[in-house]
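Long-time lurker. I teach an intro course on protein structure, and each term I like to show students one example going from raw sequence to a predicted 3D structure in token notation. This year I'd like something fresh instead of my usual example. Would anyone be willing to generate the tokens for the chain below so I can use it in lecture? Attribution to the forum is fine with me.
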Amino acid sequence: MIYNYKSFDLEVKDVDTKEGIVTGYFSAFGNVDSDGDIMMPGAFKRSIQDWGPEGKNRVKHLMNHDPSQPLGKMLELKEDDYGLYYRSKIGSHQLGKDFVKMVESGLITEHSIGFKTLREQKSGEANQIHEVMLFEGSSLTAWGANEATPILGMKNYNNLEKIQDQIKAFEKFIRNSDVTDETIDLCILKVKQLAQAIEQMSSTKAVDEAPLQPKEEEVSVVELINIINKF
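-- Reply from a regular --
Happy to contribute to a lecture. Here you go:
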């Protein structure tokens, strides 16, 4: 593949709603993803220098890797000890406004990068990616492909409460927000994916395991399905 994606369970770090400034991480170092790759410190150095805000400013901040959905202008892009940090000025267009509202509501829970691998080192444990050509960083409304993301990481019922909380947050946002129909459709898709994750967890649970007794305030799987069927 010429163009690759790597997604991480990295929430937005901060948002200044008045100025429309959003900060966060597009990528994290030292994490082995589902493809057996590890993004190494220094992997983005040349791209930042040549194509970052202080270079030709060609690295884009997109929604869901879609070039037709630019979110804003990158003000800062750098590597730190944790990963690839960004600071963006979100546009005043409707998509930008919807994005800020979703960030405020805690609904943007993943980021991803679009890149081409330039230098890597294969080993038995993992493939270390040492240099990439970075094209864009995306904020995601759908599941990513990294092992750290909820869809691949939720392998037991210890995460059930987190999924339920996310579904409740999306349901509240859908009912009360004045965002566009396109954004609502994305939110409904996410709710359905969350419910699907719970169904997968239920179907893979061993027969001889004791059934989980949900708390009174928890939402059952059937109730979750009923929620998404309302939309």
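Some talking points for your students: Strands lie at 4-8, 14-16, 21-28, 37-39, 60-63, 66-79, 83-90, 110-122, 127-140. The chain has six helices and nine strands.
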